[in-house]
Amino acid sequence: MILLLFSTNETELTDVLNAALDYGYRLIDTAYFYENEAMIGKILKDYFKKGKLKREDVFVTTKLPPSAHAPEDVEKCVDIQLKALQIDYIDLYLIHSPMAFQVFN
C-alpha cells in the first residue's frame, strides 16, 4: 500500500481522501498541529453517511500538541479534537513531541 502524505485545501483533501477510502485505505493519521482535523472530520462524516464504510472500519490516529502536555490540558484537547473530527473515539492517540513548548489555549 502506498503512503500518502499531503497538506492541501479542503476541495483537494476531499477528493484525495474519498479516493483513498474507495481504494481501501483505512488509516487516517492527523494531528491538532496539522490544522486539518475539522476538514477530515467533515469528509469522514459525509463518507460514513453514504454507507460505504462505518466508523469502526477506519483507524483514526491523532496527536496531542506540544502545547498541551499539562495534565489538565490533555482531556480538554482530546475533547476539542473529537469534536473537530466528528467521531466518538480516537483509535490511537500519540504525543506529537516529547517536549512541550508553549501553553495550550
Automatic annotation (TrEMBL):
Q: NADP-dependent oxidoreductase domain: from which residue to which, for each copy?
A: 8-98
Q: Which GO terms describe its molecular function?
A: oxidoreductase activity
Q: Which Pfam families match?
A: Aldo_ket_red
Q: Where are the transmembrane segments?
A: none
- Check the record and name the Gene3D superfamilies matching this protein: NADP-dependent oxidoreductase domain
Q: Which InterPro entries match?
A: AKR, Aldo/ket_reductase_CS, NAD(P)_OxRdtase_dom_sf, NADP_OxRdtase_dom
Name recorded for this polypeptide: NADP-dependent oxidoreductase domain-containing protein
